[in-house]
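A note on notation is needed here, since sequence and fold are reported together in a single record. The reader may check this reading against the record printed directly beneath this paragraph.
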Amino acid sequence: MKIGTKLIHNGNEMDPQTGALSIPIYQTSTYHQEDIIKGQEFEYSRSENPTRKALENTIAKLENGDKGFAFSSGMAATSSVLSIFSSNDHIVICEDVYGGTYRIASNFFSKFKVETTFVNAADLSEIERSIKDNTKALFLESPSNPLLKITDLKACVEIGRKNNLILIIDNTFMSPYLQRPLDLGFDIVIHSGTKFIGGHSDVVGGLVAVKGEDLSKRVYTVQNGFGAILGPQDSWLLLRGLKTLKVRMDYQQKNTQKLAEWLLTNENIEKVYYPGLSSHEGHSIHLAQADGAGAVLSFKTINTEKALNFMKKVTLAAVAVSLGGVETIVSYPVKMSHASMPKKERERLGITDNLIRVSVGLEDIGDLINDFEQALEE
């Protein structure tokens, strides 16, 4: 079964009790227990909830994992996965990771003596040089946020297996529709469900898919222990969002490709970052491991003033944090997604004051290009 069909028909699309084509929202905290000695599947909603279970089973099925887990946010998902590690464990992380992940890894987990090394993951030799005797995991994003850097995931799997590492990836930009890292050999996939999976800028949530029973138990222990679980209402919204993921992303990708090609011709643009462009570094690697280029691009204007003016003058796009909604969203990474990263580090990575990230929506692309053109004018 192809992924587009699997989004609709995955075994979690209807209520087994009534046949309803929408999983009910089980808005309950606790459950009557018929036999307190024997026990039952649902006892308390922090541990299990039928609506959340349907979502968790769905993400596991879509990513071809063994278990799925739903959290209260993308950062709750990331933090919970990182919490399976112990003091004096070492994790190698791609250096241009999402700002929130950078912050939690460097400022929070460091307090518990979980070591991290940030590397240029596009350079496989740098990854290998960073592995130490206590290295337990490799954490990646591809494409990365916000410069859409591409990492050779299959090559990283080989490195990980050779060094007995747990392989983790944030797959938010691609979604399970466009990229399925567990099939490539990864162990854990993380999603901010807030983004393309939810798709309507109306829910905050995080999802994790895991390969392997032992690793699944470790993640569940953290989920149940910390209790940063997704509520039933939000679980239902993500289930609904998944049903339209294919049609939204197909259209958004087409829009993004056209916008990227137009930006290349604009005299006010210094550089465009989008995996769908043949000029994008890692273009062929990306298309060998994913089914599309996605609906996020970034560009640099010829100077900072031009970037700031664009953010003030653009009208059809929302100026906001986040991405993946039906509306186009433009963000300013140095003040938004990567504000928590030290300026010196940002600039070293190329996250400069003239960089703008765009999550392309469902607007008519002609209208969107016209709006971008006027926003880039003097």
Q: What stands out?
A: The mean pLDDT is 96. The two ends are 51 Å apart (CA to CA). The chain has two domains: 3-243, 245-376.
